Amino acid sequence: MSAAATTVPSAAAVRHVDVELGRRRYPIRIGPGLLDDAPSLAALAPGRHVLIVSDANVAPHYLARVEEALASDPSGKKIASHVLPAGEQEKTLARFGELMSALAALGANRDATLVALGGGVIGDLTGFAAACWMRGVRFVQLPTTLLAMVDSSVGGKTAVDLPEGKNLVGAFHQPAAVIADTDTLATLPDRELRAGLAEVIKYGALGDAAFFDWVNANAAALRARDADALAHAIATSCTHKAGIVARDETETGERMLLNLGHTFGHAIEAVQGFGGLVHGEAVAVGMALAARLSAELGLAPHADAERLEAALRALDLPTDVPPGLDPDALIARMRLDKKNLSGTLRLILWRGVGQAFVATGIDEATVRRVLAPR
Questions:
Q1: Does the annotation count 61 as an active-site position?
Q2: CA 189 centroid distance within chain
Q3: Among 15, 266, 292, 333, which one carries the catalytic annotation?
Q4: Do residues 162 and 168 make contact, with C-beta atoms less than 8 angstroms apart?
Q5: Which of 79, 170, 248, 299 has its CA 20 to 30 A from that of 126?
Q6: Cα angle vertex 156, ends 28, 349, to 5°?
Q7: Residue 199 is a catalytic residue
């Protein structure tokens, strides 16, 4: 699929993207009404035991439908559901422990399937539980937020947070399938939609200047939830991520580029106690900071940093560090980032739109200046 395509397929069409990992492969299906395809959903959970994990925001809308679809299998699956409170602050070891207990109560064996019905928090937590139960069982992603559809549900990163930082405890564990029913975006709050758009434009910023321009040109349509524009954005983002994951599954090289803005963003989330900016908003600020730092270091034009900030503002996303956050506290959190080596910062910077790269040996004094209030 060309990111710069001028003709966008109808939103009614179901789009297919495969994630290929050597001999392993799993599908991403994107389109409307997919949660109503009971035979297909039931086929994704071939074993006897199924645990559906959701949260208090999503479950009232979709849980009964998914339970009914899975129960339609005549083999007689034993199905249980576990509904958590909503929010990043729930992605903890304690909630992980609840899922372990729920699987034990279900009597889940190694042929069990976990189903993640929700956004990135539910996907990350459910995937980590699947990675750990009996040393690894099957799980399926049913993302219901834009951010989860374009990013967190794809690629097998699973984790929980610690008070010291985001995603510090986790595992790589690929899903069996990702089913993105775009109809679920109708119940997504505006703030969460905008947060997902941050991850969409990230793909253009890090490696596809034409897609960056397309997102910028279609910002109003995306914010207005135009079905064709959103479906194209999701499919293009998934195509980019699937290609990168196929080349670097465990993030030893190219996959690190997907963290553009994330080192800054994760630090902001942690310093705010996971109760301030939501993830996509923090990533938007982080991308703006990475672009400014690149310009300050003479690695990229200031004009490109300004282009990115303008594009983020067109999506109604923040571009500045929230007031009152101490730059030294943010840098302390950044030192815990998983990309760092030997105690030195390793950041994703760029040479301009579509040209991200891994930068090492970054001077912390310059980082501190970029983090200071403007």
A1: no
A2: 17
A3: 266
A4: yes
A5: 248
A6: 100
A7: yes
Q: Confidence class of residue 5 from pLDDT cuts 50, 70 and 90? A: very low
- What stretches of 84-189 show up as alpha helix (H) in DSSP? 93-106, 120-132, 146-147
Catalytic residue among 15, 138, 202, 279: 279
Q: Is 298 left (phi over 0), alpha (psi -120 to 50) or beta?
A: left
Which amino acid does the sequence have at 45? A
- Half-sphere exposure of residue 209: CA atoms within 13 angstroms, side-chain side: 9
The answer to whether residue 90 is catalytic is no
Select which of 67, 88, 251, 281 is catalytic. 251
Report DSSP state, residue 87: S
Is residue 262 among the annotated active site residues?
A: yes
Respond yes or no: is residue 338 known to be catalytic: no
- Mean pLDDT within 205-231: 96
Nearest to 62 by CA among 176, 177, 179: 179
Phi, psi of 326 (to 5 degrees): -80, 125
Among the listed residues 90, 192, 199, 281, the single catalytic one is: 199
Catalytic residue among 95, 202, 232, 255: 255
Q: Which of 138, 216, 259, 309 is catalytic?
A: 259
CA pair distance 245, 242, nearest whole angstrom: 5
The mean per-residue pLDDT over the stretch 177-192 comes to 96
**Could you report the per-residue pLDDT of 273-294, keeping only the tens digit for each?**
999 999 999 999 999 999 999 9
Annotated catalytic residue, options 95, 157, 232, 240: 157
Active site residue 266: yes
Checking phi first, is residue 142 left (phi over 0); if not, alpha (psi -120 to 50) or beta? beta
Per the annotation, the verdict on 232 as an active-site residue is no
Where is 125: in which H helix or E strand?
A: helix 120-132
Q: In whole angstroms, how far apart are CA 72 and each of 59, 83, 109?
A: 19, 21, 21
Q: Are 200 and 237 in contact (CB under 8 A)?
A: yes
**Among the listed residues 21, 33, 279, 288, the one whose alpha carbon sits nearest the alpha carbon of residue 151:** 279
